[in-house]
Amino acid sequence: MSLLNDLNPAQRKAVLETEGPLLVFAGAGSGKTRVLTYRIAYLIQEKGISPWNILAVTFTNKAADEMRERVEHLLGGSAKGIWISTFHSACARILRQHIDRLGFGRNFVIYDEEDQERHLKAVMKELELDFKMYPPRAMQSAMDKLKNEGITPDQYRPSPFNLFQKKLALVYQRYQEDLRRNNGVDFGDLLVMVTLLFKKCPEVLKSYQHLCRYVMVDEFQDTNLIQYRLIRRLGEGHQNICVVGDDDQSIYRWRGAEVGNILNFEKDFPGTKVVTLEQNYRSTRHILQAANHVVRRNRLRKEKILWTENPEGELLTLYVGEDEEDEANYVVRKIAEYVNAVSQKSNERPVRSYRDIAVFYRINAQSRAIEEELVKNQIPYTIVGGVKFYERKEIKDILAYLKLIANPSDGISLRRIINHPPRGIGEKTVESLLAFSREKGLSLYEGMREALKEDWLSSGVRERIRGFIHLIEELRQEAKTLSLSQLTLFLLTRTGYLARLKEEGTEEALSRVENVEELLSLLTALEEGEEPVSLETFLDRVSLVTSVDLYEDRENRVSLMTLHCAKGLEFPVVFIIGMEEGLLPHYRRGEEIEDLEEERRLCYVGITRAKEKLYLSRTERRSTFGIGRANLPSRFLDELPFELIHVEEREKKEDSVFSQEAFWREDVDPSRDEGDSRQEIVTWIPDGFFPLRTGMRVRHPKFGDGRVKSIEGMNEDQKATIVFASVGPKRLKTRYANLEILE
Ligand code: ATP
Ligand code: MG
Question: Among residues 69, 132, 431, 602, which is most buried (max CB within 10 A)?
Answer without folding.
Answer: 602
